[in-house]
Design a protein that fits this description.
About 40% of the residues lie in helices and about 15% in strands. By secondary structure, it is an alpha/beta fold. The protein starts with 6 loop residues before the first helix and ends with a helix.
Length: about 750
């Protein structure tokens, strides 16, 4: 979003934003303690430095930083020394995980016009990092299946379920073929997974320049977007079954852990797959035969897109070293002075696909700067009331491995002690993005109102309010957020799916979680997971002044400090109850819409309308008829939501009036609230993927990173498993009732005379 478009609304918000900074009440604090907290936060801010973050980023991203690389270990050792220097009780916890390091790759177009793909990212003029070759791996996809195959190719657009339906209607069968897909439309890992499920023998994924190359802006080095030879690496592990080490689901991957075999691990694919550049894919698409691709399949390469199959065959070879590799989580503790057995956990990962300046080190240096400033405060005599745990995770990129293994190894302790997990990953410049457990929505809004935006000098919250109102003018999906922004109510936070290290804490252990980062004005997306994600690129097109790195430290640091020092844990339940109520209404609408669409489709099929609407010169088969949709019974959820809203309203009002509580009673309230989000867990987990136990939030089976809310019900409905959907209506209502009962218990303590 261009900043110029925000000017009018931003100016209207300046007064409110400036008045809000430093003046909003602090959730969970008495007025006297709130004043002390604000003074502490000002001292915390003074310990942050853009120049320090710049220097650390340059050092940490100076060499290839992927799992198994020498620099990855060197960075872990360097951070350990820093934490100790700052006074933290720090250590490295080492795990041993299955990690496929590439040994050999080949991609060849055979036939009359042979071509051999580079599978390499050449240096960029002016970027010394991008010319580095030591320990730099070729483009690859972690946890694809090795193989050596030769077959015709078919182009499947984004490689999502609807794309395969379109191919089927066009009479194209991908069985025995190599499928070409482009990035976008859904999570990367679903592309080879769905190709495999449809009978393909291999999969290629390329970045179309219309998405993150010369379409949106000038390619690197003139601009920040993807150059012709840029390649997006990534994991294709089936993380929607479970993240972490494929061989140790549910337990920490210690040296002596009981392991599955590679053959029995369900999250590893079986067909070879590679990511390739738009330079390398062009000859393959030019050689494609068959019908012209449907309009929605076409990218912005200068060619006519066909869906195939090709007359010429393609040879694809992928071979990896599938050994165990050590990974290094850096864990630092600062013991709490009053409640040492309550933990506030803050994390960011430190491994990249190559250099990783933006992803993840821009966020990691912000975390380190927070830890440095907190250490300096501790040396003046301050101590947090609750214990702080700062973690820099390894092996996030191949599958959230470092955080998952640590959390699984310490699961019992975390479920007894942790009160919140605060996560960051990448960071750019522009607008604050926040996804969170919705009982933390008020806290996130309060913090965002207190941190100044480096460019506009109003609060980052006020700027966000301006941004969502402007965006809503052209984006109907933002209308609800815009109404909240205009009224001064809390801006809704996003639901958490997957794609970063909060997943295990929230969806497996049931710990309230937050994910943060700035973006919208940087040009980093085009070098995502490529060898061009370098310090030079980030310092030009990411956050050139590193002021948004400091802003991230201020936001996450305040969240940590307020969670650590609040008299009553800073939870507010009205936002959660309203959000869940909205989710239930979405389920009702989904049921109605599916029923109407299915009945309409049946009438059109019966009347022969699909045949009449098809072009007789093309293969355009009618769709397969969908089964009838029953009317779902949502009464149990309606009852639970009504109760939840009443409980939330009573608690929020009681907390506002509570004032200072006796220490013993405050401790009892906190004990009730500490693990309240664990009431949302179901011991049996979600259908077909029991590792995911949270019935409020989960990554979607067919969205990967994207969140599915009330997932047991929603995904069963979307897959037309109606009996299962009805079962999970009852299960979900049960956990919501348990959540409400826990709120009621806390309210009773707050209102006791």
């Amino acid at each position: 979003m261009r900043r110029l478009l925000l000017s009018t609304v931003a100016l209207l918000s300046v007064a409110a934003g400036s008045a809000a900074m430093g003046q909003t009440p602090l959730l969970g604090f008495t007025p006297a303690d709130a004043a002390k907290e604000r003074g502490l936060e000002a001292r915390f801010d003074a310990g942050l430095s853009a120049e320090t973050q710049r220097a650390w980023l340059e050092e940490m991203s100076s060499k290839a930083n992927q799992v198994g690389s020498p620099h990855d270990k060197a960075n872990a050792d360097w951070m350990l020394a820093k934490f100790k220097e700052w006074g933290w009780d720090a250590r490295i916890e080492t795990f041993y995980v299955l990690y496929p390091t590439p040994l050999a790759e080949k991609l060849e177009l055979l036939g009359d016009h042979p071509f051999t793909a580079k599978l390499h990212e050449p240096g960029i003029p002016g970027d010394t990092s991008a010319r580095e070759t030591e320990n730099v791996p070729p483009p690859y996809l972690a946890y694809q299946g090795d193989g050596d195959v030769t077959a015709p190719v078919v182009y499947a657009n984004y490689g999502m379920p609807d794309d395969y339906k379109a191919l089927e209607r066009a009479g194209i069968d991908v069985k025995g073929k190599i499928v070409i897909t482009r990035y976008g439309g859904g999570w990367r890992g679903l592309k080879p997974q769905l190709a495999e499920e449809h009978g393909a023998v291999g999969c290629l994924i390329y970045s179309d320049p219309g998405d993150d190359g010369y379409g949106p802006a000038d390619p690197y080095p003139k601009g920040g977007t993807r150059p012709p030879d840029g390649v997006q690496r990534g994991s294709v592990q089936k993380m929607t079954l479970y993240p972490g080490d494929p061989l140790t689901p549910g337990i920490g991957a210690t040296k002596d852990a009981k392991r599955l075999t590679r053959e029995t691990a369900t999250t590893i694919l079986h067909i070879p797959a590679l990511p390739i550049s738009y330079a390398d894919v062009t000859p393959l698409l030019e050689a494609m035969g068959g019908p012209v691709a449907p309009k929605g399949f076409r990218g912005q390469l200068p060619l006519t897109y066909h869906i195939g199959p090709s007359a010429a065959k393609v040879h694809l070879l992928v071979k990896s070293d599938w050994g165990l590799k050590p990974i290094y989580d850096v864990i630092a503790f600062m013991k709490g002075s009053e409640a040492p057995d309550q933990w506030v956990v803050r994390g960011n990962h430190h491994d990249g696909w190559v250099f990783g300046a933006w992803d993840p080190l821009a966020g990691n240096v912000a975390l380190l700067n927070e830890a440095q400033s907190l250490g300096a405060l501790a040396k003046t005599g301050w101590k947090p009331k609750r214990t702080l745990v700062y973690a820099s995770w390894d092996a996030e990129e191949p599958g959230l491995i470092g955080s998952t293994e640590w959390a699984e190894e310490h699961a019992d302790e975390l479920q007894k002690k942790a009160v919140v997990y605060v996560n960051s990953d990448t960071n750019g410049k522009g607008f604050l993005g926040a996804e969170a457990s919705h009982d933390l929505q008020r806290l996130v809004n309060q913090v965002s109102a207190d941190v100044p935006d480096p460019e506009t000098h109003i609060s980052v919250g006020a700027r966000l309010r301006a941004g969502v109102q402007v965006e809503a003018l052209t984006n109907p999906r933002m209308e609800k957020d815009a109404k909240a922004a205009a009224s001064g109510a809390d801006i809704p936070v996003g639901a958490l799916g997957s794609g970063s290290d909060y997943s295990t804490f929230l969806q497996h252990l049931g710990l309230a979680s937050i994910n943060l980062g700035f973006g919208g004005e940087d040009e980093q997306g085009g070098v995502y997971h490529s060898a061009y994600d370098t310090f030079e690129h980030y310092s030009r097109f990411g956050d050139p002044t590193f002021e948004y790195g400091v802003a991230l430290s201020k936001v996450s640091g305040r969240l940590v400090l307020r969670e650590a020092d609040a008299d009553i844990l800073p939870l507010q339940f009205g936002g959660f109850a309203d959000t869940v109520g909205g989710y239930v209404e979405e389920l009702k609408k989904l049921n109605t819409d599916m029923k109407t669409k299915t009945e309409t489709q049946a009438k059109l099929l019966a009347g022969g309308d699909f045949k009449l609407a098809a072009d007789p010169a093309l293969t355009d088969l009618p769709p397969t008829a969908d089964a009838a949709v029953p009317k779902m019974d949502f009464a149990a959820l309606d009852t639970s939501v009504t109760k939840l809203k009443a409980s939330a309203k009573a608690y929020d009002a009681a907390l506002e009036k509570a004032g200072a509580l006796p220490a013993e009673r405050a401790a009892k309230v906190n004990a009730i609230l500490q693990d309240i989000d664990q009431t949302l867990l179901d011991p049996e987990g979600l259908p077909g993927r029991p590792w995911f136990k949270n019935l409020a939030y989960a990554p979607g089976v067919l969205t990967g990173y994207g969140a599915k809310t009330l997932p047991g019900v929603r995904e069963a409905m979307e897959s037309r498993r109606w009996t299962e959907a009805q079962t999970y209506v009852g299960k979900t209502a049960k956990v919501l009732d348990a959540f409400a009962a826990r709120i009621d218990a806390a309210t009773a303590l707050l209102t006791r005379g």
